[in-house]
Amino acid sequence: MNALTLQWQDAGQNKTQNIYEQQPSKNPGTVRIGRDPRQCDIVVTNPTVSGLHVEIFFHSQQQRFYIRNLRSPNPPLVDGKQLVQGEMPLTEGSMIYLGQMKLYVTTVIINSIPATILAPLPLPVAQPKPQANLGHHHHQQSSPTHPRGVYGLECPRCHKVSPAENLQVGCPWCGTSLAAAVSVLVAPSN
Question: Three-state DSSP class for 158?
């Protein structure tokens, strides 16, 4: 799952927030930051931050998180550059100033595993050869009962299967932890 972690200080408290590619928000597809709780998903109290200041979103074609300015009279400073209009990519270590408040991108996780890994795998053309010699090699007798495939994790909430590598980051579709997921075999096609 694609995720970005922000850290900042607000009203003397350290805050941390994960932003996921498709998490529910007040403006679907983005996470908005500012002082107005009616418009923002991350609400801060710093008076130098606008009511609706910026939004962070994941660009699926670019495979990157971006920040977009929503308040031209009070533009954010991103990695030392003023973002008056448009958007800028965010990376691990990016520093964002909204007014006098500093936000820091501590981690960025981009799931670069192609979705096709979840599709049934075609059997190799050379597959029948070992089966023809089953009588000669005792240890291969169990091969026909265990189809070749890949193991995945079935989400306990949405029941979609994702690669086992997602165990630490969660379901890429609904964000649910995969700690309690059932391990399943994605069988090859015939």
Answer: coil
**E strands, 2-100, in order:** 3-10, 13-20, 30-34, 42-43, 54-59, 64-69, 77-78, 81-82, 87-90, 95-98
Ordered strands of the 64-69 beta sheet? 42-43, 30-34, 54-59, 64-69, 87-90
Residue 126, amino acid:
A
Contact 120, 187 (CB under 8 A): yes
pLDDT digits (tens, 9 = 90+) for 60-100: 888 899 999 998 788 999 999 999 988 999 999 999 999 99
Token code pair at residue 59: 């660009």
CA gap 64, 109 in Å, rounded:
9
**Is pLDDT above 70 for 112?**
no
- Quick check: 18 and 5 in contact, CB under 8 A? yes
Residue 71 has φ and ψ, to the nearest 5°, of -140, 90
Give the C-alpha distances (Å, rounded to integers) separating 178 from 59, 120, 164: 24, 21, 9
